[in-house]
Amino acid sequence: MLFLSFDTDRSGKMSSYELRIALKAAGMQLNNKLLQLVGLRFADDNYDIDFDDYLTCIVRLENMFRAFQAMDKFKRGRVKMNIMQFLMLSMNV
Questions:
Q1: For FRET with 10, which of 41, 46, 54, 70 sits at 20 to 30 Å CA-CA?
Q2: Residues 6+ apart with CB under 8 A from 48
Q3: Residue 2 to residue 91: CA distance in whole angstroms
């Protein structure tokens, strides 16, 4: 299990550093700004992420990556969408 592999101190939580490495291992290259946003959304006050929040984070990111890739028909790294598409993607619908 990926979570256990990167919870190096066996605390049952991942530090932001451990999360960065785990996301990279899962094929999700996020820049520093996005990692900060993930931390704000999913981490606790100590910037640690427990298993449940990690799982929610991974599922949401994976869904977002898949949706983006499906919309990026020419593989240019950008998509055009209207407000409804954006909201549906943002809400994981």
A1: 41
A2: 11, 13, 14, 15, 16
A3: 25
Measured CA to CA, the distance from residue 62 to residue 26 in angstroms comes to 9
Q: Which domains does the chain have, with CATH numbers?
A: 2-90 (1.10.238.10)
Best CA proximity match to 64, nearest among 34, 21, 25, 32: 34
User: Over its length of 93 residues, how does the chain's per-residue pLDDT go in tens digits?
Assistant: 678 888 888 888 998 888 888 889 988 889 999 999 998 999 999 989 999 999 999 998 998 888 889 999 999 989 999 999 888 888 865
Q: How far is CA 13 from the centre of its chain?
A: 16
Residue 64 tokens read as 């977002």
